């Protein structure tokens, strides 16, 4: 059946959607090979295996011409100084995407294969991801960082692209606590 117009309630305290679609939970064990210090990541995964982020979707399906949304919540933390982050992906057909920061403090690391871009995300900031830019979200604060994503339903998630090309830079906690970008492979 076609999707009917709908109002989706966003709970600002619980960071939930109602009605909700699927929720995805990514723990340290799901992030193999993504942090600079893989040994530290593996040790954390073998230990408490903390939740690094969750993604709660609305019921709008990931289908062509639809505009699904989701709330990503990244926990605060670092692995050998590298801020906790999402896996990061490219959209196979290079479709754009919009993020709206809701709570906490974070950033969007973007990479088009040549250039890296870093957008600071504070509550109220709309971050625009243009076509062809792989994107990874980073929690640079001490509280959970949550944002709304709105994306073309057919956009897809190419995670292998990031494994193959990297993200150009990595975000570490600097001496004053703020984000320090360093070359990806350094
Ligand atoms: O559509 C998006 O870009 C986001 O909803 C992400 O999928 C979400 O933040 C999780 O990141 P990733 O898919 O890279 O694990
Ligand atoms: Ni995306």
Identify the notable features of this structure and list them briefly.
six-stranded antiparallel beta sheet, binds 5-phosphoarabinonic acid, 39% strand, 186 residues, mainly beta, binds nickel (II) ion, 2 helices, Jelly Rolls
Kindly describe this structure.
The protein is mainly β. It has one domain: Jelly Rolls, CATH 2.60.120.10. The chain is 9% helix and 39% strand. The protein is built from two helices and 15 strands. The chain has helices at residues 38-46, 159-165; strands spanning 9-11, 16-18, 23-27, 51-57, 69-74, 78-79, 82-83, 97-103, 106-111, 116-121, 126-129, 134-139, 145-150, 169-173, 179-183. The strands form five sheets. A six-stranded antiparallel sheet has the order 3-4-5-13-8-11, with no helix packed on it. The termini are far apart. 5-phosphoarabinonic acid binds next to strand 5 and strand 12.
Which regions contain 5 or more consecutive residues with pLDDT less than 50? none
The chain-level mean pLDDT equals 97
Helix-and-strand structural type: mainly beta
Largest sheet: 6 strands, antiparallel
Tally of DSSP helical segments:
2
CATH topology: Jelly Rolls
* Strand residue content: 35-45%
**What is the total number of structural domains?**
1
CATH superfamily: Jelly Rolls
* Side-by-side strand order of the widest sheet: 3-4-5-13-8-11
Total beta-strand segments:
15
User: Could you say what the CATH architecture is?
Assistant: Sandwich
The helical percent reads under 10%
The CATH class label is Mainly Beta
Bound molecules: 5-phosphoarabinonic acid, nickel (II) ion
Could you give the distance between the termini?
Answer: 51 Å
C-alpha-based Rg, rounded = 16 Å
């Amino acid at each position: 059946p076609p999707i009917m117009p709908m109002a989706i309630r966003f709970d600002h305290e619980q960071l939930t959607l109602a009605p909700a679609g699927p929720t995805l939970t990514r723990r340290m064990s799901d992030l193999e090979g993504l942090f600079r210090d893989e040994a530290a990541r593996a040790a954390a995964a073998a230990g408490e295996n903390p939740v690094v982020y969750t993604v709660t979707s609305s019921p709008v399906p990931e289908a062509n011409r639809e505009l699904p949304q989701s709330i990503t919540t990244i926990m605060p933390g670092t692995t050998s100084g590298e801020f906790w982050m999402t896996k990061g992906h490219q959209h196979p057909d290079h479709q754009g995407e919009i993020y709206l920061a809701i709570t906490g403090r974070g950033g969007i690391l973007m990479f088009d294969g040549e250039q890296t871009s870093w957008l600071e995300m504070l509550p109220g900031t709309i971050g625009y991801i243009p076509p062809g830019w792989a994107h990874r979200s980073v929690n640079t604060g001490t509280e959970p960082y949550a944002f709304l994503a709105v994306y073309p339903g057919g956009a897809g998630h190419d995670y292998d692209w990031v494994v193959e090309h990297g993200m150009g830079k990595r975000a570490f906690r600097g001496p004053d606590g703020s984000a320090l970008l360093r070359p990806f492979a350094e």
